[in-house]
Amino acid sequence: MKVELARGTSGYRAPSAAVVAAIILVALGLTVAWLGTSHEGPVVCPFRAVTGLPCPTCGLMRTTGALLHGRVGEAVLTNPFDALFLIVVVPVGIVLWSLNLAFGLAVRISPSRTERAFFWWAVAAVVAANWVYVLITQL
Question: 92: domain range?
Answer without folding.
Answer: 2-138
